[in-house]
Amino acid sequence: MLAVAGFAIPVTVSAARDTAPAGTGTARLVDQVGALGADGRRLATEIDRLERERTALASATPDRVTLAAASARADALAVLAGTVPVAGPGVELTVTDPRGNIGADVFVDLLQELRDAGAEAIELSGVRLAAESYIVNRRGGGLTVDGTAVAAPYTVRAIGDPHTLAEAMRFPGGVLDTVATREGATARVTEPGRVEIRAVR
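Structure (tokenized):
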């Protein structure tokens, strides 16, 4: 069964089994993955359009306010697409899982919590997440994130208001509570003041 959680707009992350369900389940999975790719293509097209608009405005000696607005919009979309490094206030979460009890579903829930709390950019164990990102359970343990195998301990970095993001993970029934119910697993959230996300797509 496919679980989906978005962060920012229109960023979406999916979690699924290593093998798609049979029958109509497979068709639904294919449809969902296709939709994720379409979101990514639309975002890339919009970024390209804004970059061209910014270049045209700059060469035409435009109104500074108009150029600044176009530049800000293009920069914001580049952050959402994960094509540029970003740094700022945020949080870091470390999840240990020596017994392999933390699955992709936990991270989908986490990403939904962070999105709802206003996260502007998210990185999972060195992989920058964007519109076409996916997370699946890996046979033998660990996760596959956008084709990259990652294993515990997992590190999640998110940029946004630190207090709001941290509280989103601490609320009753949130990711910290969920991890606490998984035997042997631990989760620790910190607010370092400045978070750097260097991974790009």
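Residues 24-59 form the longest helix (36 residues). Helices lie at 24-59, 64-81, 104-116, 162-170, 175-180.
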